[in-house]
Amino acid sequence: MFDVLWEGPIGAGEAVWSWVAAHAVELLVLGVLAGVAGAAVRLAWRRRVCAGLRNRCRVELVPSSSFDPGRAEIDWFAERLAAASAAAGALPRRASAVRVWMGGDAEGLLAYRVEGPEHAASVLRTSAYAEVEAARTPVRPPRIRFEGAAPVRRGPGAGEA
Fold first, then answer.
1. Residue 103 contacts by C-beta under 8 Å, 6 or more apart in sequence?
2. What DSSP string runs through 37-93?
């Protein structure tokens, strides 16, 4: 097979093209198989990402009124958050990311939530501070509504007018 490819510097180009022409069908089948294998790997990876994003844990950190962390405590908590994505195992980067949400609650107090992979729930629930209580909250996708717009229907016939 490879002895045809090496006829010397002068006839090498002709030998390569004659070999490609003689094996065109095999090369086409090999290209199609490589494309199918690449698509299968991509699909499997996407399913792992979707499964990882569905199985997430959210922890709400509730500080006491006398909460005043020091620099060392803040650094330690940051290291714990960085370790949470590693504790998730072999998940894709998007699914193993740790998200930190800070906002206000109904009383105007600071609400601090940490969300990460379910496999890293024990790392997320570990209270980093002595005066902070960690409470697990359900993960729900946000519902976005626009004033004056009808809700989008889902299911069969959703695109029909």
1. 110, 111
2. HHHHHHHHHHHHHHHHHHSEEEEEEEE-TT----HHHHHHHHHHHHHHHHHT-S--H
The counts of H helices and E strands in the chain are 5, 4
Does residue 86 surpass a pLDDT of 80? no
Residue type, 62: V
Contact by Cβ (8 Å): 57, 88: no
**CB crowding 64-92: b at 16 or more within 10 Å, else e:** eeeeebeeeeeeebeebbeebbebbeebb
What's the chain's average pLDDT?
Answer: 78
Closest CA to 77 of 118, 117, 119, 124: 124
Query: From the CB of residue 109, how many other CB atoms can be counted at a distance below 10 Å?
Result: 11
